[in-house]
């Protein structure tokens, strides 16, 4: 049996206002909390026991997932009393693991949507004899990431912070946020204080001569840390570009949950999701967007690449392009909001009052 730790304690600051009332892993993507996709993919790879390292809005997780039996999993929950960083969170849940010292433990960041071959990563770890193995992916522009160069055998040779000059870009390989640790390595992480695996644990292991192995898997990979990325990830799940056994319906141009009401002449395209109890009015055009539970879209509204929070109301003929509308917000008719604008939860915008782009 392989067991796993899921790091789901982050505040999701970059995703606000979506994360004001909801922890980031519980924001719906393709009709279900994003965490559901990660749990389902882990189970499909043979994982049976997962410990969730929670912190922000920790009380939300267990009432939804329970003991995990509906997903064929055994789930446990450990809550940090104060933020401990990635390494500290891993160490904080170590007592709930059942693995022996040389057994592999999978570790996932709770905001990465990926097509990673989980079984291949575990196999790479076992056959290479590594103490830690990392999923690496290649990106066109690695300047926003930490670089992880490897030798010809895949062994990690360095961890390089975000490069500032072209000369510093020695590889296009980056840390993709999924790891396999030998259980004994987890027990060496300092307890009771914040620790970053990226800045402290991994460089420290390398300096001590430990074997860290990288496995490059450049299938689908997306960091869902921004609203624009989250909307794209949800659409890619619906369209079938990102793999998940947890999408609640057939993949295609749109996903309409059973309790949603969509007018006959409304058009939903580009992986759009109409969540539970949503109402989509006549003539509405929605492309590549997510409409969360209980939201109402007025007649003739035009929405593109946007995320509409739970219970929000969008007035007739209003245009949204790249917008994020918080839970319970009310946008009156005949408004125009573009360019990544964010409207806070429960805000109210009167009819015909706004034509705004955040890049103006």
From TrEMBL:
Report the Pfam families cross-referenced here: GMPPB_C, NTP_transferase
Transmembrane residue ranges: none
Query: InterPro entries recorded for this chain?
Result: GMPPB_C, Mannose-1P_guanyltransferase, NTP_transferase_dom, Nucleotide-diphossugar_trans
A molecular function (GO) held by this record is: transferase activity
Keyword Transferase in annotation: yes
Q: Which UniProt keywords apply?
A: Transferase
Can the keyword Transferase be found in this entry's annotation? yes
Q: Where is the Mannose-1-phosphate guanyltransferase C-terminal domain?
A: 252-333
- Give start and end of each Nucleotidyl transferase domain: 4-236
SUPFAM superfamilies named in the record: Nucleotide-diphospho-sugar transferases
The text of the family note is: Belongs to the transferase hexapeptide repeat family.
* Protein name, per record: NDP-sugar synthase
């Amino acid at each position: 049996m392989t067991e796993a730790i899921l790091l789901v304690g982050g505040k999701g600051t970059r995703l606000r206002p979506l994360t004001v009332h909801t922890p980031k892993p519980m924001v719906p993507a393709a009709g279900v909390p994003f965490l559901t996709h990660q749990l389902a993919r882990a189970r499909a790879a043979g994982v049976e026991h997962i410990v969730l390292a929670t912190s922000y809005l920790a009380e939300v997780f267990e009432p939804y997932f329970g003991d995990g039996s509906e997903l064929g999993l055994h789930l446990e929950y450990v809550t940090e009393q104060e933020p401990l960083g990635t390494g500290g969170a891993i160490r904080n849940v170590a007592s709930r693991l059942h693995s022996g010292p040389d057994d592999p433990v999978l570790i996932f960041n709770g905001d990465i949507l990926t097509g990673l071959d989980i079984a291949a990563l575990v196999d790479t770890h076992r056959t290479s004899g590594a103490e830690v193995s990392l999923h690496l992916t290649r990106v066109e522009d690695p300047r926003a990431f930490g670089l992880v160069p490897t030798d010809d055998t895949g062994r990690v040779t360095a961890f390089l912070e975000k490069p500032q000059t072209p000369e510093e870009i020695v590889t296009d390989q980056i840390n993709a946020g999924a790891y396999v640790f030998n259980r004994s390595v987890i027990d060496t992480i300092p307890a009771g204080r914040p620790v970053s695996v990226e800045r402290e644990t991994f460089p420290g292991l390398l300096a001590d001569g430990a074997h860290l192995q990288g496995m490059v898997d450049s299938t689908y990979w997306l960091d869902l840390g921004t609203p624009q990325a989250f909307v794209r990830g949800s659409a890619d799940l619906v369209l079938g570009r990102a793999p998940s056994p947890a999408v609640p319906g057939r993949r295609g141009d749109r996903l309409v949950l059973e309790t949603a009401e969509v007018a006959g002449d409304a058009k939903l395209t580009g992986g759009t999701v109409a969540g539970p109890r949503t109402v989509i009015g006549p003539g509405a055009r929605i492309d590549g967007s997510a409409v969360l539970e209980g939201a109402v879209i007025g007649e003739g509204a035009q929405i593109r690449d946007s995320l509409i929070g739970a219970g929000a109301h969008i007035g007739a003929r209003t245009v949204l392009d790249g917008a994020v509308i918080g839970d319970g917000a009310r946008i009156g008719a005949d408004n125009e909001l573009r360019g990544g604008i964010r409207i806070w939860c429960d805000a109210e915008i009167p009819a015909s009052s706004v034509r705004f782009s955040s890049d103006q």
